[in-house]
Hints:
Layout: H1 2-30, E1 39-44, E2 52-61, E3 67-76, E4 87-98, E5 106-128, E6 133-155, E7 161-173, E8 181-194
Antiparallel strand pairs: 1-2, 1-8, 2-3, 3-4, 4-5, 5-6, 6-7, 7-8
Amino acid sequence: MKKLLVSFALGLFLLTSISAQTFSAPKKEKKKNLDFGKNNISLFLSDVVMKRISFEYEHIMGETGNMSINIPASVSIGTMTDVYDDEVNWWVGIGMKLYPTGQGTIRYFFGPEVRIIGAHVTNVFYNYYDNYTQETSQDLDLVHSAFLLNNGMIYEPTKNFIFTVSLGLGFISRDDKDPGFYPMATPSVRMGIRF
């Protein structure tokens, strides 16, 4: 029985020392990544096509930089309808990004995001009578909400310049006047600075 306890204690000690050596090496390696800034500001280049100015602020948290909080926002600079015939005036969101490999020159991220969207829609109704047609229009200002799962890659060729390609997939819940959930996709190309 003593031999069994001694061999168990020796095995436990050996396993603990090996695991301590194994897990301490990556921590030293990841500390090099702390040289990067913990804040990003990016401009969505792809939203210019949609007549919007969109940007995102991101704060990277933790010693290894495996998680961040991001706040994207957008303002319309012209009128253009989306796939649901809404003219999006603005949107703002909050999300989280998870970096499985931590920070580096090229990194993958994924994470959830929630958005509140302000939109304008003009509904046109046609009433047909015997000899004529009457056209009436109705202008509505709507507030939508959306939930997205974002995936993307970030390339950082220099210490303070970042380039991002991202795709968010999820659903949008349109205003109370149009209940239900509809699919939503938000591809984006972003360029920004890190500080």
